[in-house]
Amino acid sequence: MFYLTTAIDYTNGAPHIGHAYEKVLADVIARYQRLRGEEVYFLTGVDQHGQKVQQTAEKDGVNPATYVKRVTKGFVNAWDKLGLEYDGWAETTNPEHQSCVQGVLQKLYDEGQIYKKRYTGHYSIRQEQFLTDKERNEDGEFGEEWGEVEERDEENYYFKLSEHVPWLKNLVDSQEDFVIPHFRKADVINAIERSIDTDLCISRPKERLRWGIELPFDSDFVTFVWFDALINYISFAGYNKAADSSLPDFEKLWPASIHIIGKDILVPSHSIYWMCMLHAIGFNDQQIPSLLCHGWWNIKKKSDQGNAGSEKMSKSLGNVVDPIELVDTFGQDAVRYYLVRDIHTGRDSDYDMDRLVMLFNTELANNLGNLCNRALNMTKRYCGGVTMASEYDDEFSQQLRASLDTVLEKYRHHMDRYDISFALEAIIEFISGTNVYAEQQKPWEIAKDEGKAAQLHTVLSHMVEAVAQASVLLKPIIPTACERIQSQLNAPHLSELTLSELHWGLLPVGQELAKPKPVFPRIQLED
Ligand code: MSP
């Protein structure tokens, strides 16, 4: 079973394209794994507790429960528009999740992994956590990333994180794919050094925060939001579920193959807190998931003086890009395509609407769209809309057939490494190659010569076959467009194929094609 999860999004605001990118990336990976013939379970959802949610709800003058319901709807709507197909939906106010979190807390408390102590120190309101001197920067200050920092003197409960750090250190050294891409490992190793003698505060007194899961052993406290949220990966996978629960069977799902997260939540939350929590709960090394850590979409600053650099997307800067608006303007295929095409997994990229339009128009409308139109229209005009046998052969046709093997190899290689953009480059190269083949063979010319009927049939059936292949390979990325192509090819069997079944000759001779219709209308921007 390929069980994959994404981060669960904070419900203190609407979704933006950063959230959307992560979810599309996960959806593409899930669909690709299905294409490989794997059984897949894709979990995503929302993080509904914590101080930020409580504060935003207060500002809005509604209670947090009403507030998170409303915001959650916005996320579900955005993910529908983007065509995400997830199997499980995690909401941390769900009673089954809450009881799983309380079960974990009680177990760790009973086993002496959680203790109470008084602490006086600095507290970051933005990150909702106590800070130590290790969090100070070179100037001895708490940097911008911590937001407003205040002094606090409080009794709280602590998880003995430091007891698990030596184990974690060994694990990170020995497991090659602990974090993907591997260059992120250095961040984890640094964070481990910083955590060596620090335990994790996992409670918040109710007088300060009411909007959270109550500690089962002390009703004056709620659970720290991260401790609650991280457990979603096991609670919604059916860990310790009740006998009458409809959640999946945990044994079938765990360990997750990958947790997909952004670079900002790799350390300390996922690579340190979560791994140590899993170890404390009793999971062994083989039951620890890999972390797929993606980069960020930033915003390209507009300036008259050429390249003016980029800035973080944030509500306060007012530069947030709304994925719903984007889909309404450009369509689901264009947005999904852009979000995984113009970034390399693990690296950052600058969002740029002009590039979204340019990539859609050149790679989809002009390249694939043009090939579809030509192949289907000429098959209709010259062959009565039916695929013909390839009785003629030549060097160019052989090269085209051979190029399929190359694209399949590259596609598999890059998709297995979650490098969607490189896999797309390989497909685009294959489609361009087919368009070059059409230019060389000029079926519109040879159609005029009755003596070249066999050549015409070969050329057109090769072009239609290339469209069929591309529709299978692109389906994880742009599923609705590929469904439209496959219905024009009148070939529903294409959606049943697995990757290893792809070989030249997906469309049988005598296949009657449906009426051709443009699949990728060019985007025209108004001035
Ligand atoms: N609620 C926590 C995660 C808990 S997981 C147990 C959280 N939420 S978040 O809404 O701030 O971020 C959700 C995901 O979106 C994170 O993986 C984060 O990295 C990702 N992104 C947020 N902004 C982003 C960009 N601008 N670009 C790409 N991904 C970004 O953290």
Question: What is the oligomeric state here?
Answer: single chain
Kindly, what is the distance between the CA atoms of the first and last residues, rounded to a whole number of angstroms? Answer: 50 Å
What is the fourth-level CATH superfamily of the domain at 354-501? Isoleucyl-tRNA Synthetase, Domain 1
Task: List unreliable stretches of 5+ residues.
Answer: none
Description:
With about 525 residues, this protein is of the alpha/beta class. The chain has a domain at about 355-500: Isoleucyl-tRNA Synthetase, Domain 1 (Orthogonal Bundle), CATH 1.10.730.10. About 45% of the residues lie in helices and about 15% in strands. The strands form four sheets. Strands 1, 2, 3, 4, 8, 13 and 14 form a seven-stranded parallel beta sheet that branches. A four-stranded antiparallel beta sheet has the order 6-5-7-9. The longest helix has about 30 residues, at about 355-385. The mean pLDDT is about 95. It binds 5'-O-[(L-methionyl)-sulphamoyl]adenosine.
